Amino acid sequence: MGNGFFGKILWIDFSDETFKEENLSESIYRQYLGGYGLGCKLIYENTPIKYDPLGPDSIFGFFPGLLTGSTAPCSGRYMVAGKSPLTGTWGDANSGGTFGPEIKKCGYDAILFKGIAESPKYVTIIEDEKSIHDANDIWGLDVIKAEEKLKKKHGKFVKTAGIGKAGENISLISGIVNDRGRIAARSGIGAIMGSKKVKMLVLKGNKQMSLANKRDLLKYTKSYNSEKNPSPGKFRKSLIKKIPGIPKLLRRLHIPFKGPGKILTQIYQVFGTSIGNTLLAEIGDSPVKNWGGIGQFDFPPNRSTEISTVRINNYKQRDYGCLTCPIQCGAILKVPELGLEETYLPEYETCCAFGTLLLNNDLLSIITLNDLCNRASIDTISTGVTVAFAIECFENGIITIDDTNGLELGWGKSDSIVELVKLMINREGIGDILADGVKKASEKIGRGSEKFAMHSFGQEIAMHDPKFIESLGCTYAFDPTPGRHTAASIDFMNLGPINKYMKGFSLPKKWKKNKEAKYKGQMLVSGLQQVINCLGLCTFTTLFGSYPSKEIIESITGWDISTDELIKTGLRIQTLRQSFTIREGVKIAENYLPSRVIGEPPFEKGPTKGITVDYREFYEGVCKEMGWNPQNGYPLKETLVDLNLDFVIKDLY
Ligand code: SF4
């Protein structure tokens, strides 16, 4: 065991119901950190080429970040990872809450699942006792009811992560839920868990990691937490520059604004991400009407303010956040009109996918949908995009009321939207066709429906517009987990004071005006983003000012690690994700985005008027900086050698 990790992972094989521990050397952690960095290394080396992600050879796992389990601020995240059954590429998803630290408390740096169980099972790891149990009495329950039953049996302090009905039904857009409503949603990893017939992982640990320098860690933790309202200087300036007259705009959208110095605190502590619900529709970042509309005209403030963060806050009972986070951007709501005593605040992505994207300003329906999806473990982004697809197919006569179980679909028809999502969760009628996302649905429906399917390589595209945040076009198209807004994007990261984030990290000078400098900046950001994720840090930390990453890593692990080494580590992880995707036969560099998403033809009015995104040229420039072949995205042999990824060469060449 080293400092900051246990040096031990757990394999659970459901084909013969066995547990096996494996020890890992310190050099693995130094090269891959934790999270999906460690996950990608382990899964790459333990799976055959071109395997079926839902078959017996498939492996997926739970991977806390390297810093997860310590007191490091905002380090409570964990990742699930495996081959995405939705896209066929590398797949991963990230979640917060309290589950990630519990994995570490059980004494493991990762827990991996392999094989397929003969009948539904759940796993307990409770203070060193490991067991596989029959899950027939919880199979079919939503994640909250299942957790309640398991707590009665195994004690109220256990932590759970698992699947609801959508995961059990192997919906390719299902995720894994922990803490009764936090979801590692993307990439369809819930379908892998469902295919293995595993309902839940139940944990309670009592172990503590050894730390290199506990006193220093507490010093840095305390100092960061006491500055949880850091100077918003640059953040505010870049935001205000991007959105002239922001205070006026916020007031027009009925969002209270108390003055420049308070903006960050207001945004994240008071409102959370749902601050974007009205604001981003107005300024051109939110996709509207299945990417075919313009916020100012199709979902103007008199409608968008119906789903504003201020309206949502009327239901707020208390703040909620991930373990060790001083910001606590989430909230628990009580909604008497819906009979909901306790439900999670819907995030911006959810509100946009079920609101702006569908021209739906019925807030209660959005809260209902958020609750339904969390309980069923289905991704709200993919589900909303799939509903938008179905509505547009209906409006264009491609499907009719005879196909929709009698539902009259239409923009903003909230009752039928809720019913359609229930059909998807249960795979009933048209819901069975839609449960695997828009690409699969359009292949089954045919008749020109593919033009309404807003996906990238099979994954539904997230709720930020590359016509507004340009480099997202490249990220959406070509990241090994395509269609994701949380993958690395220089313009997105630049919303925060990114040059202050980590000592020694800065973007190239004049990158906004110089193409070559921007390619290099995207490469650097790509490395940084993997580091943030694999340390288990929240990606929002880039918005909150500087984060003492190197100091905290040193106080936890004892490593004196330079910024250059950290960025190179991030690039190693990104290159391995890319190599996995190529090894599995995916021609990621040949991907293209739907024409609406990139502005082909461009809008004739609105904030993104006249903009078409050239994401392909950008990708080629970034590939050169990454040491990848710009024609096909293959990492070059010398790049693989330089990154200590020699073991990949035989698979790619
Ligand atoms: S800012 Fe929000 S999402 Fe990030 S760690 Fe804190 S509570 Fe979790």
Write structural notes for this entry:
- The chain is of the alpha+beta class and 653 residues long.
- It folds into three domains: 8-204, 4-Layer Sandwich (Aldehyde Ferredoxin Oxidoreductase,  A, domain 1); 258-453, Orthogonal Bundle (Aldehyde Ferredoxin Oxidoreductase Protein, subunit A, domain 2); 472-652, Orthogonal Bundle (Aldehyde Ferredoxin Oxidoreductase Protein, subunit A, domain 3), CATH 1.10.599.10.
- Helix content is 40%, strand content 13%.
- The protein has 29 helices and 17 strands.
- Strands 2-1-6-3-4-5 form a six-stranded mixed beta sheet, sandwiched between helices. Strands 8-7-12-9-10-11 form a six-stranded mixed beta sheet.
- Helix 2 packs across helix 25 (563-583) and helix 16 (363-376) packs parallel to helix 18.
- The two termini are 36 Å apart.
Q: What is the compact description of this entry?
A:
By secondary structure, the chain is an alpha+beta fold. 40% of the residues lie in helices and 13% in strands.
